[in-house]
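TL;DR need structure tokens for one chain.
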Amino acid sequence: MTRGRLAAVAVLAAVLVAVVGVVLRTREHRAAPPKRPSVSTSSVLVLTWAPSLCGVETSASGCRSGLVGRLGNSFVLHGLWPQPRSQQYCDVPKEDAARKRKQLSLPADLSNRLDGMMSDASVMAPHEWYAHGTCAGVTPVEYFSIATELAEQAIAVLDPVFDRAAGRQLTARSVRDAVDAGAGAGAGSRVALVCRDVPGSGPVVYEVRLSLPPVVQLRSAGRSLAKALAAGPAIAPGCGQARIP
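>> reply
TL;DR here they are.
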């Protein structure tokens, strides 16, 4: 082989090595999860009125299976969301969340509590952890323990209000007044209603959202809803009023 050909081969080999290096670095960059540490400034406990859920989200697994219907007139736990809303899928790419869903393992007693409080815990619990819990700064057990304990207290206050209003209009003001009475003066200013349309029936009150401090701070709040609401930022009341199915 001539000196010219040897030089050409050496140049080609160097180019191939460089190309392979770029490809490998690109793959590593794409595979690495985004580093988005939690910078949550508050959190929102989200509760959905079960009869509204199945009117709006008819294809939801818990509605199709009858799980939600068996709960009757009650709230179900949707989730505990670090705020602002950009705090989602921390340290886990969204496209990887579905693959990881089956990896969520919780103690049996906590899993049983979620089964009785979520529309379909087998679907909702993994989704809520990867979408929101990963940004909370706590473990999955802490995250769901806090969410269920605060949700139980909130449901005890809200269920009677919504049950009495079934078939009628309910205002945000009346819900806020009930929370003031049940969780202390001023607590109602941390409550908002979310209304959505049921095809052919018009708007209904779909969810109640309660404004709380960051999830990491809820570990030391004694799991008291009254204390948690007192420490959360005030929020707008949301939709003014709508029907309760």
